[in-house]
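The records we work with from here on pair a chain with its fold. Taken together, the tokens spell out the fold as the letters spell out the chain. The record below shows the convention in full.
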Amino acid sequence: MTTFELRRLLDYDDESILAELRRVADLIKEPTVTTQAFDRLSKVHSTTVRRRFGGWHRALEKAGLDHRYSGAIVTERMRKGCPVRHTDEEIINQLRTVANKLGSVTFTARKFDELANIHSYTAVRHFGSWAAALTKAGLTPGRGSKRYTEDDYFENILTVWTHYGKQPKYIEMDLPPSLISSGAYEAKFGKWTNALRAFLARMESDTRDNLPSKQNVSSGYNTPNPSVVSLGNLPHERRPIKLGIRYEVLKRDRFRCVLCGASPATDPECQLHVDHIIPISRDGGTVTDNLRTLCSKGNIGKGSKTESSSRQPHQSDGD
């Protein structure tokens, strides 16, 4: 079964960072662990590590890797990079100051970052979510207070992931094509990385039972927002594909149309669909081996063609 893994840490507490430092150190064959070697393999940048522990040497000491220190000098400038601990009052004052500058009792985390002396993530970590931070300061949460279902959140992540062809960043959730703001994810999941964790857990769950059996063909799925699926001579009949299966197919095909190579990352007008190679009307199964990524033009042109006349490039006739 496919294992879904993020390219960045989900948690940035001290122990998670130290654990990542030990993991990467095991991968480095040289006797010393340098920041350059670490950055090539790690899910967290060495700058973050240095700032958290007051220098690279101190970080290695904390991780029990003092013997693998290269002897590089830790400058005073690097030591000053240690994070500042802000009090509730300081964060609340920053929130109210930004509200006064904007003349509004509600604003996004991104707008706060443009005007404040601290980062919005500090407020989120301190109070649990962006909405909670605004409420604590006597302000009003904006779009993040709108009620979305869990499926809405996950569908939106998949939309943004498909658009960029890679794991979306926090800031990208406030840009089109995202319909749900980063603040809304913080209000729902506590922080953005928790939302990504929940999304991947859903992907795992959806693909766990994705077996190429006849039962999967006819059982259908209860996903509230199904993708568009070609059904050959039965265009009026639509069957939803589980969110996790769609994600697996899109990721396998590198978020590109397998016929023309079109991608939303390079063509904003491109819309990708997960399509059945052999239509359901011809007993095609809703399993990854019978699914592929097509752009809207390729999907319309396919019509009722079967696997023999409209095949994925990566498949062979022996499959």
Residues 72-82, 211-238, 304-319 have pLDDT under 50 and may be disordered. The first helix runs from residue 14 to 27. The longest strand covers residues 272-276. The CA atoms of residues 57 and 73 lie 9 Å apart.
